[in-house]
Design goal:
29% of the residues lie in helices and 34% in strands. The chain is α/β, with parallel strands linked by helices. Strands 3-2-1-6-10-16 form a six-stranded mixed beta sheet, with helices on both faces. Strands 13-12-11-14-15 form a five-stranded mixed beta sheet, sandwiched between helices. A three-stranded antiparallel beta sheet has the order 7-9-8.
Length: 303
């Protein structure tokens, strides 16, 4: 049985999760030292941090899947008319390069198209080539073989099992908010928390303020999506480790607050709720194709 590692690389936090088959076996949660990430680009400090966490946690997996935050990325959700399957890649490439404000030579692309009676709904992600290459190099120098890379919002939604509604993950130093619509993220944002991790009440207040502000922005940017008290808000991270976390969330957040269910077996005291992006990485069986074979290396970027 091959052990797999899910590496959730945030802006201020690193989380590692190992699974063997359908059972979670190892975990680690680490605050990144100052200077480990600079504008989304890892330094040698990240390699040292990853290697130290692997050694301290007695991880055995060598093959890893990595989730990255949205820094240095762009995504577009657009439609294409009905056309022959042989023309789809060319049409996506044309629209992607027209819509994404990055030089095509400087980015990796990945995309997925869903067909319906009116044509194709296309979801495209572009990530800075220098950033992806640097993450691959830093993680590789720590002794891991990177199989796949993905955006954290996509991995988080899979780990939570959310296809529609809001999801909010609360970490020690940062949080991630995602709006899912018909299986696609329409909005996502990772933001830092100013209050220290030991002051949970202050962080909860920050979460409430940030959630309200970001939802207000979503309502203006995605006016076709109804967001109200009946909208589900799935919670991950520190909420599960507070005695009254669900109750406090329902007091602060004016949505239909829910908690995700486990999808892997784990020891009774295993903090799987802190590793939902890692779970989403590990459980993913099908990965979508790169945009253009001529770019080289795009097979590691999944949309």
């Amino acid at each position: 049985m091959t052990a797999r590692l899910g590496l959730d690389l945030g802006t201020r936090e690193l989380r590692l999760l190992q699974a063997g088959g359908r059972r979670l076996t190892h975990h680690a949660e680490v605050l990144l030292p100052e200077g480990a990430m600079v504008d989304g680009i890892p330094t040698s400090l990240l390699t040292t941090t990853v290697r130290s966490a692997l050694d301290a946690g007695a991880f055995t997996a060598v093959r890893a899947r990595v989730a990255i935050a949205e820094t240095g990325t762009a995504f577009r959700d657009f439609r294409l008319p009905r056309l022959a399957g042989s023309e789809l890649s060319r049409a996506v490439a044309f629209e992607g390069r027209r819509l994404v404000p990055m030089e095509a030579a400087d980015v990796y692309f990945a995309w997925h198209a869903s067909r319906d009676s009116n044509g194709y709904a296309v979801y495209l992600v572009a990530a800075r080539r220098a950033m992806i290459d640097a993450v691959l190099a830093a993680v590789g120098a720590a002794g891991l073989q990177v199989e796949r890379m993905d955006l954290k919002p996509l991995a988080l939604a899979r780990g939570m099992g959310v296809s529609d509604g809001l999801l909010l993950e609360w970490g020690a130093a940062e949080a991630t908010l995602v709006l899912m619509v018909r299986g696609r993220p329409r909005f996502f944002r990772t933001f830092s928390l100013d209050a220290p991790p030991e002051d949970a009440d202050a962080q909860l207040d920050e979460l409430a303020l940030s959630l309200n502000a970001l939802v207000k922005f979503m309502r203006g940017a995605a006016s076709d999506v109804q967001i109200g008290p009946a909208t589900s808000l799935a919670l991950g991270g520190r909420f599960a480790f507070m005695d009254d976390g669900l109750q406090q969330a329902r007091q602060r957040f004016e949505f239909n607050v829910v908690l995700p269910l486990p999808v892997f077996e784990a020891p009774a005291d295993f903090p799987w709720q802190a590793h939902l992006a890692g779970i989403g990485l590990i459980r993913q069986g099908h990965w979508n194709n790169r945009l253009s074979p001529s770019q080289g290396g795009d097979t590691r970027v999944a949309a």
